[in-house]
Amino acid sequence: MATRAVRHNRPVVDLQLVIFDCDGVLVDSEVISNELLARMLTAAGLATTLEEARRSYQGLLLSEVLSSAESKLGRSLPTGWLTRYEQEREQALRRELAPVVGARRAVERIRSKGLETCVASQGKLEKTRLSLELTGLRALFPDELLFSAWSVARGKPFPDLFLHAATTMGVAPERCVVVEDSPSGVTAASAAGMRAVGYAADTDETALRHAGAEVFHRLDELPAVLGLGQRAE
Which residues contact 21 (CB under 8 A, 6 or more apart)? Predict the structure, then answer.
């Protein structure tokens, strides 16, 4: 694992594309989503804290969350439980969602250096669109720059999503950097042959490093991490 991390964290020669995860990187949604998930799982009989929800389910497809939770519970969750979670999560996001501090400046700084950017999320496209709209970031990422794991055979930690994004954008994997906040996303980036940088504002820094990421803690540090100069102004 250490060898792989060193290989993918060397500066990218002729960097052309920066691929952003959405939740937890551009929008501050992980606590909102996982607090709700913990409450609803606890109400269904599977006692779960926020920390346990983030550790066990963050970065998974919702179908994988459901399967994992039911396996731990030893029975199926109530009919319609997942639909109700999605509905209540949308309501919570509409009330509380904010952009990650420095997100807009980091994206604009990267683009000012002539690089392409896009978003590749484990979530459905409609959720990504809503999240970006609610946080004022939607204009930065029109539909042609949005990619979802629901469009490929396998989500993270497999490389399919990032390879799909790079292919569609016309950029070779070795010319890409992925900005992630989950170990599964870092693993997917490394498997795709891309450099991974881990945004560790409120996630497990050790887990990100173990997965192979170079870790940073503020989005205004990202341009410098990528070798593009000083912090975004």
Answer: 119, 120, 121, 122, 178, 179, 180, 181, 182, 185
Burial label for 230, CB within 10 Å (0-12, 13-18, 19+), is exposed
Q: Please report, for residues 9, 55, 91, the alpha-carbon distance to residue 174 in angstroms, rounded to integers and kept in the order given.
A: 11, 30, 39
| C-alpha span between 167 and 149 (Å, rounded) | 14
Tokens of 224: 């410098």
Q: How far apart are CA 117 and CA 19, in angstroms?
A: 6
- Domains for the chain: give ranges and CATH numbers: 2-29+98-225 (3.40.50.1000), 30-96 (1.10.150.240)
pLDDT digits over 94-151, tens only?
A: 999 999 999 999 999 999 999 999 999 999 999 999 999 999 999 999 999 999 999 9
Burial of 93 per CB tally in 10 Å (0-12, 13-18, 19+) = buried
* pTM flag (> 0.90): no
Structure tokens at 96: 């509380």
Q: Cα dist. 87→42, 67, 82, 207 in Å?
A: 18, 19, 9, 30
User: The tokens of 137 are what?
Assistant: 């970031």
